[in-house]
C-alpha cells in the first residue's frame, strides 16, 4: 500500500517526540545510540519465461514432371497429399513452418504444367502444402519468373487463396519487402532474397530470363558478385523490422552453387556480413544438396547467428541415377528447428536448434510414382512401416544411407 505525504509527516513527528522523551529520562551514565532507520527494500521480481515458440524451415519444393504426373487422379485433378503424408506429423510439432516454393502457379491459360527448366505446377499443390501444416512459403528463388510477370502475381494470389503466407515477392512496389508475424507472443521479422543471373548491367534476370520492368520491383533479389546495394537495402529492411518491434529477425536466402556440398567463399562472406547486421538466423537454399550448418559470430564479437547454408531438397525427382552427382545427396534435405523463448523482462533468446534429416522416398502405387518426404529423426527400423518405408524393397536401407550422408555433411552439434 502506498503511504501519502500527510500521514507520513504526522508519523515522523510522533517518532521524534517519543525519541525526545526517551532520551531525557535516560540515566546520566548510560550511553544512548541514535535510532537506526532501515529503508524498506523493494523486491525485484524474478525474470521468468513467458512464451516459447518453435520455427521450422524446410528446403526446395521442386515439382518435376514425374511428381505432378504421379499426383494426377482419374478425374483429371491433381492430389499431392501423399507427398506429405509421412512428414505431416513432424510438421505439426512446430508453431510455424516455412518451405521454399521453387515452382510457380502460372495456370493453364496459354500455358501447360511443366517441370525443369520452367516450372509451372497445378494450383492444388498450394492446398496440399497448407493441409500438410506448412504456414508460409518462400517465393523468391531463381524460378520465380518462370511463368513471367503474370506468374509472379498469380503465384501470390494462389498461395493466399490456400491460406498460406509468403515472403520474397510482393503484389506491388508499395508493399513491404518483409513480413512481421506475431507467433505465440513473439514478433518475428522474416525476409527472403534470391540471387540474380548476370546478363546485362541495369537489368534483373532470374534463371537466365530477363525480368521485365513491371516485375523487377516485385521480387527481392541481389547480385552476389556486387552485393553492396543488397547490403544497403537489407540493412534498411532490418531497421524497419526492428522499428516494428521485431524480437527475432531471420533472413532466407537463395544462393550458392548447385550440387556443391561445401558452401563457397561467397556464401561465407555474405553470411558474415548479414551476421554483422545483427540477424538471428540465416537460412539458405538453392544448391539442391544439404550444406554445412554453423553458428557465426559478429565481427565485433557481440552477436551470434544460426546459419544453414543449404536446406537441400524437401521434395524433388532429382534421383541419383538421373544426376551428374551420383552420391544420392540430391535426395536429401533437412528441417531446421529453432526454439525461441521470451521472458518477462521482454528479452528473447534462441534457446536451442536442431537439425532433422529428411529423405525423398520414391515408390510406386497403382502404377503411379509417389515421392514421399520422410523425416529421419526417429529410429528408422522401429518406424519403418509408419513412415511408408516398407512400400519399396530398399526403402529402409536407403533411408539409413540418407541419414548418414546428411549427418556427415551437417557436422553440426546442437547449441543450447
Oligomeric status: single chain
* Tally of strands: 17
Q: Low-confidence runs (pLDDT<50, min 5 residues)?
A: 1-34, 412-416
Number of H/I helices: 11
Overall pLDDT: 91
The assigned structural class equals alpha/beta
Order of helices and strands: HEHHHEHEHEEEEEHEHEHEEEEEEEHH
Radius of gyration: 29 Å
Q: Indicate the overall shape.
A: globular
The fraction of residues in strands falls at 25-35%
Helix proportion range: 25-40%
Would you mind describing this structure in some detail?
The protein has 11 helices and 17 strands. It is an alpha/beta fold. The strands form 3 sheets. Strands 1, 2, 3, 4, 14, 15, 16 and 17 form an 8-stranded mixed beta sheet that branches. Strands 5, 6, 9, 10, 11, 12 and 13 form a 7-stranded mixed beta sheet that branches. A two-stranded antiparallel sheet has the order 7-8. The longest helix has 20 residues, at 5-24. The protein is globular. Residues 1-34 and 412-416 have low confidence and may be disordered.
